[in-house]
Design brief:
Blueprint: H1 3-24, E1 27-28, H2 29-36, H3 40-52, E2 56-62, E3 69-75, E4 81-87, E5 91-98, E6 103-110, H4 117-134, E7 142-149, E8 152-154, E9 159-163, E10 168-171, H5 173-181, E11 185-189, H6 190-201, E12 209-215, E13 219-225, E14 228-229, H7 266-273, H8 282-290, H9 294-318, E15 322-326, H10 328-332, H11 335-348, E16 358-361, H12 368-384
Parallel strand pairs: 4-7, 7-11, 12-15, 15-16
Antiparallel strand pairs: 1-3, 2-3, 4-5, 5-6, 8-9, 9-10, 12-13, 13-14
Bound molecules: zinc ion (ZN).
Keywords: Carbohydrate metabolism, Xylose metabolism
InterPro entries: ATPase_NBD, HTH_CRP, ROK, WH-like_DNA-bd_sf, WH_DNA-bd_sf
GO biological process, one term: regulation of DNA-templated transcription
Length: about 375
Amino acid sequence: MKKHDQDFIKRQNRLTVFEIIKNQHPISRASIAKRTGMSATTVSRIVGELAEQGYISESEQVSSGLGRKSTLLDIAASSVLSIGIELDTHQIGIGIVDMKGDVVFSEAYPRTADESPDHTIVRLESIIGDCLKRHEIDRSKVVGIGVGLPGIVNHKQGIVLFSVQLGWKNIPLAERLKVLTGFNVAVDNELKVKALAEHLRGAAIGSSRTALLGFGNGVGSSLILEGQIYRGDWNSAGEIGHTTMDPNGALCECGKAGCLQTYINISSLLGEAGKIRPIRTIDELFEARRAGEGWAVHLIGRALEYMAITVNNIVCMYNPDSIILSGELIDRFPGIYEEVEALCLTRFVWEPVRGSFHILRSRLNERGVIIGSGLLAQDWFFELD
Ligand SMILES: [Zn+2]
């Protein structure tokens, strides 16, 4: 076997062992050997290296069955930190994420829709520097930055190819932020990192086929298959918001007509509402519905039906075991979840597959993108380490 093949296998084995400790801690060396098929010697060598680097800790515990003492391995959560960023039209969210996916702190800063890429990138640098300083974070523990944003992202190179919501096109975000901060930067689509976070630390732990739907300023989806993000060829898989529902429908911000999101997303709902009377916020629209104003009842009722139709389409196409409903509309109006679930199970999901999946609430809610971006940055670090 060639030297670089051996190195590759060693690295892969190390990653596999580390992943198992990260996701199934506390765990014994013997269980790792059993699960991976590696020899006890190999597992012990890798565990020794990881412990020496300070990534994992050991503790003596008495196993319940035989009363024998065994040594269990856990991750040293705060030995590695990353910066998770959620970049959205009107807000920049930032958090420090540890190895267990816990958020050490998080903050949010307003952003205007017309803020230029240059301005946003310079602001990101100053927000990051300021946060690390104020919260007295040891920079040597920070292994990188992860950024999640709406749009199509070349995740390998960290280039934002196209984001309608941000108004960005071909922006080499990772490279530019790395030059400014000195940290490695991973960039990905927000729903992809959110689904990863829900799969690793949230609502869909243990699921092997998770679909996440996002209903908010846009409409999108993402899929985690056997623990991996399904990306497609251009990392644009899941852009369901721009599937055509009616070629003669209302214009979408993407330039096409009758896209799915024109029936659901916040700006479309506010645009329609504005035809009746001046409605500025989504809360006012829901208030009008609660007060029984017919047009508002119709408008939101129709949006919920299209959400249920989206669930049906995803279930028919991908046969996931879990579907997570997420996004600003679901987070801010939790009652929507029950209404959509009821619509799915009584009317919209094709009958033969109704029992094939669980509909779940997002557990990480608005912190999902920060956690997922942070974990993605850590994954990059350990893959390169
Ligand atoms: Zn569209």
